[in-house]
Amino acid sequence: MALKVGLCILIIVCITTGFCDAGKTSSYTRSSDTSSDMPADAFPSPKGSNAPEQVHITQGDRGGRGMIISWVTPNQRHPNVVRYWKANDPSDVYKAHSQIFSYRYYDYTSGYIHHATIKKLEYDTNYLYELGSGDAVRQFSFSTPPRPGPDVPYTFGIMGDLGQTYASNSTLGHYMSNPKGEAVLFVGDLSYADNFPNHDQRKWDTWGRFVEKSTAYQPWIWTAGNHDLDFAPEIGEYMPFKPYLHRIHVPYRQSGSTSPLWYSIKRGPAYIIVLSSFSAFTKYTPQNDWLEAEFKKVDRHETPWLIVMTHAPLYNSDNYHYMEGESMRVLFEPWFVKYKVDLVLSGHVHAYERSERISNIRYNITNGLCTPIKDQSAPVYLTVGDGGNIEGLANDFSDPQPFYSAYREASFGHGLLEINNRTHAYYTWHRNQDDEAVVADSTWFYNRFWYPKDETASF
Ligand SMILES: [Fe+2]
Fold first, then answer.
1. Which residues are catalytic?
2. 420 CA distance to ligand 1 centroid (A)?
């Protein structure tokens, strides 16, 4: 009898606190930790005179009818034209001219970096585009998203902390082997040039060539990470994000932002807010003011899925980078809960982790309520800093696994978010060692605005 009573009490405590939900720490162990950089000659410049290289595209306007086409010409400024046309109508060719940038960093001078914004594209349409001239013409393609709407399906890839190692190559190839991904949500830390003497800027060039096989064909939605700062006063480099800001252009002004480091876009069924973990975000700063106004603009009837991207995670149970996102959590988490953010995507920690829906907004320093609680208005926090960069894996998880951690694993991989409609999205995480068809972690996400059901109840 006493045993039964005790069991009942335990069950009641578990139900009311959620503390007995067992998260999973994967027992999977990677066979090796090879994450050295690929040699520079793995990414030769394309053939031809002054051939355009490092081609990458990103959404170029608020709602998906624009595209920013970026590329580098190594020797001469021109040609600075992109020609583009609908795949089913090659007779009607349009042109756009780029703005041309270059920068110096320590002993390095960049090539000519082109950014051309093309506008008034048709939704849900395949386009071809062409760069270069003479013996160096190169042709690429992309598809525009559907017009933003509540029930348009759309699939995002999720990657972070990629670098340019053999493991990075495996991650990118793995993602590309699945035809489902239509755009990439990239959560920061691109080239890892800063791991080399004097922030060897040629690493930015090899990285641009490495990722071109995807970035020239799908828009990557960019977030800046700490390895993108390139702040090095010891070698006379005082401008934070100097290489990143020259190489990556985003449509920040269209969302009322004053910096390319934080901005928002609407793409299909998703409203995507990009934040900068390494820019000022405390109260009264431009980023804070912008974000406060930003949430009020989101119309869940038009874009039901509200996704926030940061580099440093707000919740993570790895001992690497312990609590580095805590100051942002204190400031922004009340808004994430108030406005029912569906997902917060981050990188930085070189491992994979998925949280439960939890919040910690009651805590005010003096009341002692410093433990996160289950909260169905809160986002799920995904850490996907597992792209495979030169620094290796973060394999020092806290023990025991905290209740708010649903799944964690120190392996390289990528995520895939398949938004089906306004209520359901299917999420999978794929480790590099498996075939793409093998799913190491998966769950259904239920939209917090339209269908705020507890996802864990269905397991
Ligand atoms: Fe990082």
1. 321
2. 31
